[in-house]
Amino acid sequence: AGTPGLFKAKLTAESATVRFAEGLDTPILGYNGTSPGPLIEATEGDRVEITFANRIPEETSTIHWHGMPVPADQDGNPMDPVATGTERTYSFELPEGSAGSYWYHPHPHGKTAEQVYRGLAGAFVVKPKADPIPAAYGDTVLVFTDLRLAADGTMPDNTMVDLMNGRVGDHVLVNGQKNPRLAAPFGTKRRFRLYNATNARFLRLSFEAPMTVIGTDGGLLEAPIAADEILLSPAERLELIVSFDKPGPATLYTLDYDRGWMGAGRPPDAGLTLLTVNVSETPAESVPPLPDKLRPIAQLSAPAVSRRFVFTETMAMNANGMEMGFLINGAAFDMNRVDIVAKAGEVELWEVINKADMDHPFHVHGTQFQVVENERDGQVSKPAYLAWKDTVNVARGETVRLLLRQDRPGPRMYHCHILEHEQLGMMGIVDVQ
Ligand code: C2O
Ligand code: CU
Ligand code: CU
Protein backbone atom coordinates (compact mmCIF):
# COMPACT_ATOMS: atom_id res chain seq x y z
CA ALA A 1 0.00 0.00 0.00
CA GLY A 2 1.27 3.46 -0.91
CA THR A 3 1.18 6.50 1.32
CA PRO A 4 -1.65 8.83 0.38
CA GLY A 5 -0.45 12.22 -0.64
CA LEU A 6 -0.03 14.48 -3.57
CA PHE A 7 0.51 12.75 -6.89
CA LYS A 8 1.99 15.05 -9.51
CA ALA A 9 2.88 14.31 -13.12
CA LYS A 10 3.30 15.98 -16.46
CA LEU A 11 1.92 14.59 -19.69
CA THR A 12 2.92 16.17 -22.98
CA ALA A 13 1.11 15.14 -26.15
CA GLU A 14 3.69 15.34 -28.89
CA SER A 15 4.88 13.96 -32.20
CA ALA A 16 7.45 11.18 -32.06
CA THR A 17 8.92 8.50 -34.29
CA VAL A 18 8.80 4.80 -33.59
CA ARG A 19 10.37 1.87 -35.42
CA PHE A 20 7.77 -0.91 -35.64
CA ALA A 21 9.31 -2.55 -38.72
CA GLU A 22 12.91 -2.89 -39.94
CA GLY A 23 14.11 0.26 -41.65
CA LEU A 24 10.78 2.09 -41.42
CA ASP A 25 10.17 5.13 -39.29
CA THR A 26 6.60 5.60 -38.17
CA PRO A 27 5.42 9.03 -37.04
CA ILE A 28 3.13 8.71 -34.03
CA LEU A 29 1.53 10.92 -31.42
CA GLY A 30 2.57 9.97 -27.92
CA TYR A 31 2.21 11.15 -24.35
CA ASN A 32 5.77 12.09 -23.43
CA GLY A 33 6.72 10.70 -26.83
CA THR A 34 5.67 7.11 -26.14
CA SER A 35 2.71 4.94 -27.08
CA PRO A 36 1.11 3.79 -24.90
CA GLY A 37 1.80 6.76 -22.67
CA PRO A 38 3.49 6.39 -19.28
CA LEU A 39 1.78 4.06 -16.82
CA ILE A 40 0.29 6.19 -14.06
CA GLU A 41 -0.04 4.51 -10.67
CA ALA A 42 -1.60 6.39 -7.78
CA THR A 43 -3.33 5.29 -4.57
CA GLU A 44 -6.85 5.78 -3.22
CA GLY A 45 -6.92 8.95 -1.17
CA ASP A 46 -4.29 10.69 -3.29
CA ARG A 47 -4.78 14.16 -4.69
CA VAL A 48 -3.72 14.11 -8.33
CA GLU A 49 -2.36 17.06 -10.24
CA ILE A 50 -1.41 16.39 -13.82
CA THR A 51 -0.20 19.14 -16.07
CA PHE A 52 -1.04 18.51 -19.68
CA ALA A 53 0.95 20.23 -22.40
CA ASN A 54 -0.48 20.04 -25.89
CA ARG A 55 2.34 19.98 -28.43
CA ILE A 56 0.41 18.26 -31.22
CA PRO A 57 0.89 20.29 -34.39
CA GLU A 58 -2.11 22.55 -35.05
CA GLU A 59 -4.63 20.53 -33.07
CA THR A 60 -6.70 20.87 -29.97
CA SER A 61 -6.69 17.99 -27.52
CA THR A 62 -7.75 17.20 -23.95
CA ILE A 63 -7.14 14.42 -21.46
CA HIS A 64 -10.15 12.39 -20.46
CA TRP A 65 -9.78 10.16 -17.38
CA HIS A 66 -11.72 7.19 -18.66
CA GLY A 67 -13.79 5.59 -15.89
CA MET A 68 -12.51 7.76 -13.08
CA PRO A 69 -14.71 9.54 -10.56
CA VAL A 70 -13.36 13.02 -11.34
CA PRO A 71 -15.28 16.33 -11.34
CA ALA A 72 -16.83 17.11 -14.75
CA ASP A 73 -14.72 20.24 -15.21
CA GLN A 74 -11.50 18.19 -14.73
CA ASP A 75 -12.50 15.47 -17.18
CA GLY A 76 -11.17 16.69 -20.54
CA ASN A 77 -14.59 16.93 -22.17
CA PRO A 78 -15.03 17.88 -25.86
CA MET A 79 -16.20 21.35 -24.71
CA ASP A 80 -12.92 22.02 -22.85
CA PRO A 81 -10.30 21.97 -25.61
CA VAL A 82 -6.64 22.64 -24.93
CA ALA A 83 -5.12 24.40 -27.94
CA THR A 84 -1.76 23.39 -29.31
CA GLY A 85 1.10 25.22 -27.61
CA THR A 86 -0.86 25.63 -24.38
CA GLU A 87 -1.09 23.77 -21.06
CA ARG A 88 -3.64 23.08 -18.38
CA THR A 89 -3.52 21.29 -15.06
CA TYR A 90 -6.15 18.69 -14.22
CA SER A 91 -6.65 18.12 -10.53
CA PHE A 92 -8.88 15.73 -8.62
CA GLU A 93 -8.99 13.43 -5.63
CA LEU A 94 -9.13 9.66 -5.73
CA PRO A 95 -11.87 8.77 -3.26
CA GLU A 96 -11.87 5.73 -0.97
CA GLY A 97 -13.06 2.70 -2.88
CA SER A 98 -11.94 4.03 -6.26
CA ALA A 99 -9.13 1.49 -6.83
CA GLY A 100 -9.38 0.16 -10.38
CA SER A 101 -7.92 -0.09 -13.88
CA TYR A 102 -8.60 3.20 -15.61
CA TRP A 103 -7.02 4.86 -18.60
CA TYR A 104 -6.49 8.24 -20.16
CA HIS A 105 -6.90 9.46 -23.71
CA PRO A 106 -7.84 12.64 -25.60
CA HIS A 107 -11.49 13.63 -26.16
CA PRO A 108 -11.44 16.70 -28.44
CA HIS A 109 -14.56 17.22 -30.52
CA GLY A 110 -14.35 15.18 -33.73
CA LYS A 111 -10.68 14.22 -33.29
CA THR A 112 -10.64 11.57 -30.59
CA ALA A 113 -10.53 8.58 -32.93
CA GLU A 114 -7.53 9.85 -34.88
CA GLN A 115 -5.54 11.05 -31.87
CA VAL A 116 -6.05 7.69 -30.16
CA TYR A 117 -5.09 5.50 -33.12
CA ARG A 118 -2.03 7.64 -33.71
CA GLY A 119 -0.89 6.72 -30.21
CA LEU A 120 -2.41 8.86 -27.47
CA ALA A 121 -3.62 6.49 -24.73
CA GLY A 122 -2.20 5.23 -21.47
CA ALA A 123 -3.14 3.21 -18.39
CA PHE A 124 -4.00 4.81 -15.04
CA VAL A 125 -4.03 2.29 -12.19
CA VAL A 126 -5.47 3.31 -8.85
CA LYS A 127 -4.19 1.01 -6.13
CA PRO A 128 -6.18 0.26 -3.00
CA LYS A 129 -4.73 1.16 0.38
CA ALA A 130 -4.82 -2.52 1.32
CA ASP A 131 -4.70 -5.00 -1.54
CA PRO A 132 -6.17 -8.48 -1.01
CA ILE A 133 -4.20 -9.86 -3.98
CA PRO A 134 -0.79 -11.22 -2.93
CA ALA A 135 2.03 -8.90 -3.97
CA ALA A 136 3.99 -12.01 -5.03
CA TYR A 137 1.75 -12.23 -8.15
CA GLY A 138 3.16 -8.95 -9.44
CA ASP A 139 0.86 -6.54 -11.24
CA THR A 140 1.45 -6.39 -14.99
CA VAL A 141 -0.43 -3.95 -17.16
CA LEU A 142 -1.06 -5.07 -20.75
CA VAL A 143 -2.33 -2.28 -23.01
CA PHE A 144 -3.59 -3.55 -26.37
CA THR A 145 -3.45 -1.19 -29.32
CA ASP A 146 -4.05 -1.84 -32.97
CA LEU A 147 -1.59 -0.67 -35.59
CA ARG A 148 -1.98 -0.24 -39.33
CA LEU A 149 1.15 0.57 -41.32
CA ALA A 150 1.41 1.70 -44.92
CA ALA A 151 4.37 0.48 -47.03
CA ASP A 152 6.25 3.71 -46.26
CA GLY A 153 5.84 3.19 -42.51
CA THR A 154 3.19 5.85 -41.97
CA MET A 155 -0.22 5.22 -40.43
CA PRO A 156 -2.83 5.73 -43.15
CA ASP A 157 -5.83 8.01 -42.49
CA ASN A 158 -9.21 6.50 -41.83
CA THR A 159 -11.10 5.31 -44.91
CA MET A 160 -14.87 5.09 -45.42
CA VAL A 161 -14.72 1.44 -44.32
CA ASP A 162 -12.91 2.49 -41.13
CA LEU A 163 -15.52 5.13 -40.38
CA MET A 164 -18.34 2.63 -40.83
CA ASN A 165 -16.91 -0.29 -38.92
CA GLY A 166 -14.39 1.46 -36.75
CA ARG A 167 -10.69 1.27 -37.53
CA VAL A 168 -9.27 -2.23 -37.17
CA GLY A 169 -5.52 -2.39 -37.71
CA ASP A 170 -3.21 -5.13 -38.93
CA HIS A 171 -1.12 -5.71 -35.83
CA VAL A 172 -2.27 -5.93 -32.24
CA LEU A 173 0.48 -4.53 -30.04
CA VAL A 174 0.94 -5.14 -26.34
CA ASN A 175 2.49 -2.15 -24.57
CA GLY A 176 3.62 -0.98 -28.01
CA GLN A 177 5.32 -4.25 -28.98
CA LYS A 178 4.38 -7.22 -31.09
CA ASN A 179 4.19 -10.49 -29.14
CA PRO A 180 6.40 -9.43 -26.22
CA ARG A 181 7.89 -12.18 -24.07
CA LEU A 182 7.75 -12.53 -20.32
CA ALA A 183 9.24 -15.17 -18.05
CA ALA A 184 7.69 -16.93 -15.07
CA PRO A 185 8.70 -19.88 -12.90
CA PHE A 186 6.62 -23.02 -13.15
CA GLY A 187 3.78 -23.14 -10.59
CA THR A 188 3.56 -19.38 -10.10
CA LYS A 189 0.55 -17.10 -10.41
CA ARG A 190 0.65 -13.71 -12.10
CA ARG A 191 -1.72 -10.77 -11.99
CA PHE A 192 -2.48 -9.04 -15.30
CA ARG A 193 -4.54 -5.97 -16.11
CA LEU A 194 -5.77 -6.19 -19.69
CA TYR A 195 -6.75 -2.98 -21.48
CA ASN A 196 -8.48 -2.85 -24.83
CA ALA A 197 -7.20 0.54 -25.99
CA THR A 198 -7.94 -0.13 -29.67
CA ASN A 199 -10.40 2.07 -31.54
CA ALA A 200 -12.63 -0.75 -32.70
CA ARG A 201 -11.12 -4.23 -32.35
CA PHE A 202 -13.01 -6.76 -30.24
CA LEU A 203 -10.62 -9.07 -28.43
CA ARG A 204 -11.90 -12.52 -27.61
CA LEU A 205 -8.98 -13.99 -25.76
CA SER A 206 -7.71 -17.16 -24.21
CA PHE A 207 -4.48 -18.11 -22.43
CA GLU A 208 -2.66 -21.44 -22.67
CA ALA A 209 -2.79 -21.51 -18.87
CA PRO A 210 -5.72 -21.40 -16.42
CA MET A 211 -7.27 -17.94 -16.05
CA THR A 212 -9.28 -16.49 -13.21
CA VAL A 213 -11.08 -13.16 -13.53
CA ILE A 214 -10.65 -11.02 -10.42
CA GLY A 215 -11.61 -7.55 -11.58
CA THR A 216 -13.24 -5.35 -14.18
CA ASP A 217 -13.01 -1.69 -15.24
CA GLY A 218 -13.81 -0.32 -11.79
CA GLY A 219 -11.79 -2.72 -9.63
CA LEU A 220 -12.02 -6.10 -7.95
CA LEU A 221 -14.97 -8.48 -8.04
CA GLU A 222 -16.47 -9.91 -4.88
CA ALA A 223 -14.85 -13.28 -5.57
CA PRO A 224 -12.57 -14.77 -8.25
CA ILE A 225 -14.23 -16.62 -11.12
CA ALA A 226 -12.51 -19.10 -13.45
CA ALA A 227 -12.75 -18.40 -17.19
CA ASP A 228 -11.74 -20.33 -20.34
CA GLU A 229 -12.03 -17.24 -22.49
CA ILE A 230 -12.84 -13.58 -22.14
CA LEU A 231 -14.27 -10.91 -24.43
CA LEU A 232 -12.86 -7.42 -24.19
CA SER A 233 -14.74 -4.96 -26.34
CA PRO A 234 -13.09 -1.62 -27.18
CA ALA A 235 -12.27 0.32 -23.96
CA GLU A 236 -13.05 -2.53 -21.56
CA ARG A 237 -10.54 -3.78 -18.99
CA LEU A 238 -10.22 -6.98 -16.97
CA GLU A 239 -7.95 -8.14 -14.18
CA LEU A 240 -6.82 -11.74 -14.39
CA ILE A 241 -4.81 -14.18 -12.37
CA VAL A 242 -3.02 -16.69 -14.60
CA SER A 243 -1.63 -19.89 -13.08
CA PHE A 244 1.44 -21.12 -14.94
CA ASP A 245 0.93 -24.77 -14.17
CA LYS A 246 3.27 -26.35 -16.69
CA PRO A 247 6.71 -25.55 -18.07
CA GLY A 248 7.11 -24.30 -21.64
CA PRO A 249 5.65 -21.36 -23.54
CA ALA A 250 2.11 -20.23 -22.69
CA THR A 251 0.57 -17.74 -25.10
CA LEU A 252 -2.24 -15.26 -24.85
CA TYR A 253 -4.06 -15.55 -28.17
CA THR A 254 -7.19 -14.41 -29.98
CA LEU A 255 -10.31 -16.35 -30.98
CA ASP A 256 -12.78 -15.33 -33.65
CA TYR A 257 -15.59 -12.99 -32.66
CA ASP A 258 -18.24 -11.82 -35.11
CA ARG A 259 -19.07 -8.27 -34.04
CA GLY A 260 -21.00 -7.43 -37.19
CA TRP A 261 -19.33 -5.85 -40.18
CA MET A 262 -20.62 -3.61 -42.96
CA GLY A 263 -19.48 -4.65 -46.40
CA ALA A 264 -16.95 -7.29 -47.31
CA GLY A 265 -13.58 -7.89 -45.76
CA ARG A 266 -14.03 -8.31 -42.04
CA PRO A 267 -10.42 -8.66 -40.89
CA PRO A 268 -9.67 -12.07 -39.39
CA ASP A 269 -9.66 -12.08 -35.60
CA ALA A 270 -8.57 -15.58 -34.73
CA GLY A 271 -5.10 -16.98 -34.18
CA LEU A 272 -3.12 -13.84 -33.27
CA THR A 273 -0.52 -14.41 -30.58
CA LEU A 274 -0.48 -11.35 -28.35
CA LEU A 275 1.96 -12.35 -25.65
CA THR A 276 4.19 -15.32 -24.81
CA VAL A 277 5.15 -16.28 -21.28
CA ASN A 278 8.13 -18.62 -21.08
CA VAL A 279 7.49 -20.82 -18.08
CA SER A 280 10.70 -22.28 -16.70
CA GLU A 281 11.28 -25.87 -15.46
CA THR A 282 12.37 -24.52 -12.09
CA PRO A 283 9.37 -24.38 -9.80
CA ALA A 284 8.36 -21.19 -8.01
CA GLU A 285 9.31 -21.10 -4.34
CA SER A 286 6.18 -20.56 -2.37
CA VAL A 287 3.07 -19.24 -4.05
CA PRO A 288 0.53 -17.65 -1.72
CA PRO A 289 -3.05 -18.72 -2.46
CA LEU A 290 -5.59 -16.42 -4.11
CA PRO A 291 -8.11 -15.39 -1.42
CA ASP A 292 -11.65 -16.57 -2.14
CA LYS A 293 -13.24 -13.28 -1.08
CA LEU A 294 -11.89 -10.10 -2.62
CA ARG A 295 -14.11 -7.24 -1.47
CA PRO A 296 -17.79 -6.52 -0.91
CA ILE A 297 -19.66 -4.73 -3.71
CA ALA A 298 -22.76 -2.79 -2.70
CA GLN A 299 -25.52 -3.57 -5.16
CA LEU A 300 -27.23 -0.49 -6.59
CA SER A 301 -31.01 -0.73 -6.31
CA ALA A 302 -34.32 1.13 -6.32
CA PRO A 303 -33.80 3.32 -9.39
CA ALA A 304 -35.67 6.63 -9.23
CA VAL A 305 -35.71 7.06 -13.01
CA SER A 306 -35.47 4.77 -15.97
CA ARG A 307 -34.20 5.76 -19.38
CA ARG A 308 -33.83 4.21 -22.77
CA PHE A 309 -31.02 4.61 -25.27
CA VAL A 310 -31.53 3.15 -28.73
CA PHE A 311 -28.59 2.69 -31.10
CA THR A 312 -29.30 2.90 -34.83
CA GLU A 313 -27.21 3.23 -37.94
CA THR A 314 -28.41 5.06 -41.03
CA MET A 315 -26.94 5.01 -44.48
CA ALA A 316 -28.06 7.29 -47.29
CA MET A 317 -26.75 8.10 -50.75
CA ASN A 318 -26.90 11.76 -51.68
CA ALA A 319 -25.06 14.27 -53.88
CA ASN A 320 -22.02 14.15 -51.55
CA GLY A 321 -21.81 10.37 -51.69
CA MET A 322 -22.58 8.06 -48.83
CA GLU A 323 -23.78 9.74 -45.65
CA MET A 324 -23.57 7.67 -42.53
CA GLY A 325 -25.31 8.27 -39.27
CA PHE A 326 -24.56 6.58 -35.99
CA LEU A 327 -27.33 7.69 -33.70
CA ILE A 328 -28.61 7.41 -30.14
CA ASN A 329 -32.37 7.89 -29.86
CA GLY A 330 -32.40 9.13 -33.44
CA ALA A 331 -29.97 11.99 -32.87
CA ALA A 332 -26.31 12.61 -33.61
CA PHE A 333 -24.10 14.27 -30.98
CA ASP A 334 -24.34 18.00 -30.54
CA MET A 335 -21.84 19.55 -28.17
CA ASN A 336 -24.29 22.36 -27.42
CA ARG A 337 -27.27 20.17 -26.61
CA VAL A 338 -28.03 18.50 -23.29
CA ASP A 339 -29.73 15.19 -23.99
CA ILE A 340 -30.82 14.27 -20.50
CA VAL A 341 -30.77 15.82 -17.05
CA ALA A 342 -30.01 13.64 -14.04
CA LYS A 343 -29.88 14.28 -10.32
CA ALA A 344 -26.61 13.79 -8.48
CA GLY A 345 -26.81 10.92 -6.01
CA GLU A 346 -29.89 9.29 -7.55
CA VAL A 347 -29.82 5.73 -8.89
CA GLU A 348 -31.03 5.37 -12.48
CA LEU A 349 -31.86 2.37 -14.63
CA TRP A 350 -30.49 2.68 -18.15
CA GLU A 351 -31.75 0.40 -20.86
CA VAL A 352 -29.43 0.34 -23.86
CA ILE A 353 -31.00 -1.18 -26.94
CA ASN A 354 -28.95 -2.07 -30.00
CA LYS A 355 -31.13 -2.02 -33.12
CA ALA A 356 -28.14 -1.73 -35.41
CA ASP A 357 -26.13 -4.27 -37.43
CA MET A 358 -22.95 -4.13 -35.37
CA ASP A 359 -22.05 -4.49 -31.74
CA HIS A 360 -21.60 -1.13 -29.99
CA PRO A 361 -19.68 -0.92 -26.70
CA PHE A 362 -21.54 1.57 -24.49
CA HIS A 363 -19.53 3.83 -22.17
CA VAL A 364 -20.51 6.46 -19.61
CA HIS A 365 -18.16 9.09 -18.17
CA GLY A 366 -17.69 10.04 -14.55
CA THR A 367 -18.93 6.93 -12.80
CA GLN A 368 -19.03 3.14 -12.73
CA PHE A 369 -22.22 1.17 -13.33
CA GLN A 370 -23.56 -2.33 -12.66
CA VAL A 371 -25.04 -4.45 -15.44
CA VAL A 372 -28.16 -6.14 -14.11
CA GLU A 373 -29.72 -7.80 -17.15
CA ASN A 374 -29.11 -8.74 -20.77
CA GLU A 375 -31.93 -9.51 -23.17
CA ARG A 376 -31.70 -11.13 -26.57
CA ASP A 377 -34.52 -12.60 -28.66
CA GLY A 378 -36.82 -12.26 -25.67
CA GLN A 379 -34.45 -14.26 -23.45
CA VAL A 380 -33.41 -12.44 -20.31
CA SER A 381 -30.20 -13.38 -18.53
CA LYS A 382 -28.18 -12.03 -15.63
CA PRO A 383 -24.45 -11.39 -15.74
CA ALA A 384 -22.25 -14.08 -14.18
CA TYR A 385 -21.05 -11.72 -11.48
CA LEU A 386 -21.70 -8.33 -9.92
CA ALA A 387 -19.07 -5.84 -11.08
CA TRP A 388 -18.25 -2.17 -11.47
CA LYS A 389 -17.87 -1.21 -15.11
CA ASP A 390 -17.82 1.90 -17.26
CA THR A 391 -18.03 0.18 -20.66
CA VAL A 392 -20.22 -2.74 -21.71
CA ASN A 393 -20.67 -4.34 -25.08
CA VAL A 394 -24.20 -4.20 -26.44
CA ALA A 395 -24.30 -6.86 -29.13
CA ARG A 396 -26.50 -6.33 -32.17
CA GLY A 397 -30.08 -7.18 -31.30
CA GLU A 398 -29.27 -7.06 -27.60
CA THR A 399 -30.63 -4.93 -24.77
CA VAL A 400 -28.43 -4.29 -21.73
CA ARG A 401 -29.92 -2.93 -18.51
CA LEU A 402 -27.63 -1.24 -16.05
CA LEU A 403 -27.88 0.71 -12.82
CA LEU A 404 -25.82 3.80 -12.25
CA ARG A 405 -25.50 6.81 -10.04
CA GLN A 406 -23.64 10.01 -10.83
CA ASP A 407 -22.39 11.68 -7.66
CA ARG A 408 -20.77 14.77 -9.13
CA PRO A 409 -22.57 17.56 -10.99
CA GLY A 410 -21.78 18.71 -14.50
CA PRO A 411 -22.04 17.48 -18.08
CA ARG A 412 -20.99 13.90 -18.82
CA MET A 413 -20.69 12.09 -22.12
CA TYR A 414 -22.09 8.67 -22.91
CA HIS A 415 -21.17 7.06 -26.19
CA CYS A 416 -20.23 4.08 -28.27
CA HIS A 417 -16.52 3.42 -27.69
CA ILE A 418 -15.88 2.43 -31.27
CA LEU A 419 -14.23 5.80 -31.59
CA GLU A 420 -15.17 6.31 -35.24
CA HIS A 421 -18.84 5.89 -34.23
CA GLU A 422 -18.37 8.37 -31.40
CA GLN A 423 -16.92 10.74 -33.99
CA LEU A 424 -19.88 10.23 -36.33
CA GLY A 425 -22.38 11.09 -33.62
CA MET A 426 -23.10 8.08 -31.41
CA MET A 427 -22.71 10.18 -28.26
CA GLY A 428 -24.89 12.23 -25.94
CA ILE A 429 -24.64 14.44 -22.88
CA VAL A 430 -26.18 13.83 -19.49
CA ASP A 431 -26.15 16.96 -17.37
CA VAL A 432 -25.93 16.00 -13.70
CA GLN A 433 -27.41 18.58 -11.35
CU1 C2O B 1 -12.74 6.40 -23.24
CU2 C2O B 1 -15.56 9.20 -23.75
O1 C2O B 1 -14.16 7.84 -23.46
CU1 CU C 1 -14.54 7.76 -20.93
CU1 CU D 1 -20.48 1.75 -32.31
UniProtKB/TrEMBL annotation:
Which segments constitute the Plastocyanin-like domain?
14-130, 166-247, 317-432
Give the originating organism: Mesorhizobium cantuariense
State one Pfam family annotation.
Cu-oxidase_3
**Matching Gene3D superfamilies:** Cupredoxins - blue copper proteins (2.60.40.420)
Instruction: Enumerate the UniProt keywords alphabetically.
Output: Metal-binding, Oxidoreductase, Signal
Q: What is this protein called?
A: Multicopper oxidase family protein
Please give the InterPro entries that the UniProt record associates with this protein. Answer: Cu-oxidase-like_N, Cu-oxidase_2nd, Cu-oxidase_C, Cu-oxidase_fam, Cu_oxidase_Cu_BS, Cupredoxin
CDD domains, per the entry? CuRO_1_McoC_like, CuRO_3_McoC_like
